[in-house]
Design goal:
Order of helices and strands: HHHHHHHEEEHHHHHHHHHHHH
Number of strands: 3
Distance between the termini: 86 Å
Strand content: under 5%
Shape: extended
Low-confidence stretches: 22-48, 52-69, 464-476
Radius of gyration: 39 Å
Length: 481
């Protein structure tokens, strides 16, 4: 075959091996064809692959859920606050922080409210502040001691504290030894400017002894019988009340009665038994008030806004004046007008009125918030423990502090009669400050005894943290870290 023919045959074979272009027909799925050609996969199967949005692959921005903002709204804030409150050490820090803040603010207000009173009796302006500061230092040491003491030691001290307190309260009534202050025979002279009021320690003694007594009876399952619930708790409490009332201190007797009711309520006293004891106490209180002109005059001063022409209700009316003139933010620290002789007790029973005049509504609400936090933390400690002694003692201390704060503030606001009780941790008075700070240390010790709190405190020790960090770091074969 000639060369030309061989070339022509090869050319025809090469052209025959090339596929012919298809007709420009639309694809079954409706995808338009480019230049009459269709994609091989789409025409072979007759179906389209699902189109994926751009950027919606794994890790792309399209797969992320939309965010509602970092704040999350009030519900998220509430959940965060609730989780923070449920932490094991929350009650420990709230009790410690609120009590210290109340004490420090009380020192500032005692100095501001007592300057004019000290100068009026020919003393330095820091006379009352110095005594209160010394009592706060001693009370701080007692609080630290009580916070470090184990629960068993607190129970062991219950009976000695009760016996010493009863002895001192009997000693007050001995002529020549006891002192009378503002008509109340409830003081012991210690020498120099120092005096002691044993009835203030009676509150702490009743709480410790009553909590130990009820805890032992609950362990023996005797609290289901009313005679074991009342005896000897109620007779001993009435003995303390009698010694207090011999001196004429009605306010302290009211606080002691509130502590007794708190212990009975925590012990699970039935309603009829609780109502019976409450009715008996109310009848005795009515008789004591009815037979005393001084107490009747205090009862008549509830809700007054002006003193009568004969000078009655002077203290109650000027307490309202002090609060009313404070406004939102007060007249300024040290700028009170009522402490210049108009208010008889500006640094003791009516220090809350001076606080409202100088710091305003903001200052008084801050004090109320601190007392509310302290009371709520005490309720949490009493409610979460499994030790009956801790439950009774923490509940008794919480009842003591909150009831005394309510009675004092209610008297200043004109909602309750003037009982003559100081504001706990805030008012002037070393005899009231020392047992109260010891009781706060008692609650701190109880908060530390919680198993979860113990574990959290143990993890915060420097040695444990260092050992934990060393365990997590692995050594390399070369010895380098």
């Amino acid at each position: 075959m000639p060369a030309d023919e061989r070339f022509a045959v090869r050319r025809d074979r090469a052209r025959a091996s090339v596929p012919r272009p298809l007709a420009a027909t639309p694809a079954p799925s409706g995808v338009p064809l480019r230049d009459g050609l269709a994609l091989r996969g789409r025409l072979a199967t007759g179906a389209r692959r699902p189109e994926t949005p751009r950027g919606s692959g794994r890790g792309g921005p399209g797969s992320r859920t939309p965010r509602t903002g970092r704040g999350g709204g009030p519900r998220r804030t509430y959940e965060r606050a609730r989780r923070a409150w449920d932490r094991p050490l929350t009650a420990y820090y709230v009790i410690l922080g609120s009590s210290l803040l109340i004490t420090v603010l009380g020192l500032v207000m005692v100095y501001s409210a007592s300057m004019i009173k000290a100068l009026d009796i020919s003393k330095p302006s820091t006379y009352f502040f110095g005594k209160q500061f010394l009592a706060a230092v001693i009370g701080g040491a007692l609080m630290l001691l009580a916070a470090r003491m184990p629960v068993k030691l607190h129970r062991a001290l219950a009976y000695p504290i009760l016996m010493v307190t009863v002895f001192l309260m009997v000693l007050v009534q001995v002529p020549g030894i006891g002192m009378s202050v503002n008509g109340n025979q409830n003081w012991l002279y210690l020498g120099g400017p120092f005096q002691l009021q044993p009835s203030e320690f009676g509150k702490l003694a009743l709480i410790l002894w009553g909590a130990d007594l009820l805890a032992r009876k609950q362990d023996k399952r005797l609290l289901t019988q009313w005679k074991h619930m009342l005896v000897p708790l109620v007779p001993v409490a009435f003995m303390l009340l009698g010694l207090i009332m011999l001196g004429g201190d009605m306010g302290t007797a009211i606080i002691l009665t509130a502590i007794l009711f708190g212990l009975l309520w925590l012990a699970g006293a039935p309603t009829r038994l609780f109502a019976g004891v409450l009715g008996a106490a109310a009848a005795i209180a009515f008789l004591l008030i009815r037979t005393s002109p001084n107490r009747m005059s205090r009862l008549a001063c509830m809700g007054v806004s002006e003193p009568d022409p004969e000078g009655g209700c002077w203290q109650a009316a000027h307490g309202i004046y002090a609060l009313a003139s404070g406004g939102w933010f007060g007249s300024g620290l040290g700028a009170s007008v009522e402490k210049w002789g108009q208010l008889p007790e500006p640094h003791t029973d009516f220090i809350f009125a001076i606080t409202g005049e100088e710091l305003g509504l903001a200052g008084t609400l801050s004090v109320l918030a601190l007392f509310a936090a302290l009371g709520y933390a005490g309720i949490r400690v009493a409610g979460r423990t499994e030790d009956p002694f801790v439950r009774f003692a923490a509940g008794g201390v919480t009842t003591w502090i909150t009831a005394q704060a309510v009675i004092n503030i209610g008297a200043v606001l004109g909602l309750l009669p003037i009982a003559g009780v100081p504001l706990p941790l805030f008012s002037y008075g070393g005899s009231a400050l020392l047992p109260t700070m010891f009781a706060v240390g008692l609650m701190i010790a109880f908060a530390r005894e919680d198993p979860a709190a113990k574990a959290a405190l143990a993890m915060r020790k420097p040695g444990v943290r260092w050992k934990t960090m060393r365990r997590r770091v692995k050594k390399r074969p070369s010895g380098e870290r």
